[in-house]
Amino acid sequence: MLTKRERWVLALLVLSAFINYIDRATLSVGAPSIQAELGLSDNQLGMLLSAFFWTYALLQLFAIAGLLVDRYHVGWIYATGFFIWSAATAGTGVSRGFAVLFSMRLLLGVGESVAYPTYSRILASYPEQRRGLANAAIDAGTRTGPAFGTLLGGLLMARYGWRAFFLALGLGSMLWLIGWLACMPVTGGVPAGQTDSDAPGVGDILRQRSAWFTFLGLFCGNYFWYFLVTWLPAYLEKERHFAAAKMAVWGALAFLAAAAACVVCGWLSDFAIARGGTPTLVRRAFAGAGLALATIIVPVAFVRDDRLAMAFLITACLFIGMWSSNVWAITQTLAGPHAAGKWCAVQNGVGNLAGVAAPWLTGWVVGRTGHFSLAFVVASLVALTGSTIYVFGLGAVKQVSFSRR
C-alpha cells in the first residue's frame, strides 16, 4: 500500500498533468482569435503551434531535463518547471506581438520538459504492483486535459476573450504550488547510499537494446494519439460535416474514453501482477494488444453511418488507453530509480517527435488525396508497428544491469 504522503504526491502529479495538457492545448483553441487580433500570417501561426515542441523535445532528447531530475532534488526541479510553464501561460495573455508570443511558447516547452522525467523518477520507487495504476492515473490527466481544454477553453474565450483566459489559467495554476511545496517527495535526485557518479549516464542507457525499443514504441503510440488530437476535429467537421458543437462533444468523448480505459487497464495490470503475473507478460500484453486493437479505427474513414463510425472511434480510443496505461511502468522497471529520469527524458523526446510527424504527414496525405481515408490507414500501420515492437522486440521487463562506469 502507498503511504499517505505518496497518495498526496500522486494526486498532485495527476492534477499537474491535467493542467500541463490544458496549457499546451489552449493555443489551438484560441488560434483564430489570436491570429485575427495580432495580424499573424498562416506561416507565423504554424510556427507558434509547433514552437512548444522545439524546446520540449530537445531538452529531453539531449537529456538535460532528465539530468536535472536525476541529479538534483526532484521536488524542487518540478516546482521550478511548473512555475516556468504557468508564467509562460500567463505571459501569453499579455503578449502584443509575434516575437513575444513565440518566446512564451518556447518557455512553455522549457518548463514542461521536466514533467515526464519527474513522473518516472518518483514512480520508479513505487512497488511494481502499484506502478501501473499510478502511471495510468497520470496519463488519464493528460487525456482529460485536451478534452476539458477544448470545451471550456472555447466557451470561456468566446465570453471573456483569449487574453483573460490565458492570464487566469496561468496565474490560477500557480495555486498548485502551495500543495506541492507542502507534500512533495523528501528525497533528492540520487538514491540513498549512492553518489552521483554511481548513477548510469545517458551513454549507458543508449547502449541498452531495450531502451531503443521503448523509444520507438512510444513514438508509434504517440503518432496515433497526435493524429487524433490534431486532426480529429477537422475530420469530423470537413468529412463528417459535424457542426462545431457536435464535433466538440464527440472529440471530448473520444479523449475521455482513452482516459477511462487507461485507469481501468492500469488497475487491471497491477491486479494481474499482484496475483502472480510477471511484468514481462502483463505490461507487454497490455501495451502490444492495445496498439494492435486500436487499428479498429480504420473503418471510421469508410463507413457512412455516423453512429457506427463514432462507435469505432470510441472503441479505438479505449484501446489506445489500454496501451498508454503501461508504457511508462515498463520504462520505470527497466531503468530503475537510478536512471529513470534520464531514460524517460530521452524516450519522451523521441516519442514527441511524433507531435511533429503526425500532423505534418497527415496534412500532406489529405492534401494529396483530398480525403482522410489513407491518413487513418497510415496511423493504424504505425500503431501496428508499435505493437510488434512491444510484443516481439522489447524483451524481458526487468531492471537492466548497467555496466560500471
List keywords for this structure.
single chain; 405 residues; mainly alpha; Growth Hormone, Chain: A; 17 helices
Give the averaged pLDDT, no decimals.
Answer: 87
What's the Cα radius of gyration?
20 Å
Major β-sheet annotation: none
The helix-and-strand class reads mainly alpha
Beginning-to-end CA distance, first to last residue: 35 Å
CATH hierarchy: architecture: Up-down Bundle
Q: How much strand content do the residues show?
A: under 5%
Task: Summarize the structure in words.
With 405 residues, this protein is mostly helical. The chain has one domain: Up-down Bundle (Growth Hormone, Chain: A), CATH 1.20.1250.20. 79% of the residues lie in helices and 0% in strands. The protein contains 17 helices and no strands. The longest helix has 35 residues, at 4-38. The radius of gyration is 20 Å and the shape is globular. Mean pLDDT is 87; it is low at 188-196.
Topology:
Layout: H1 4-38, H2 42-61, H3 64-71, H4 74-92, H5 98-112, H6 115-123, H7 128-160, H8 162-173, H9 176-183, H10 202-206, H11 209-238, H12 244-274, H13 279-293, H14 306-335, H15 340-351, H16 354-369, H17 373-393
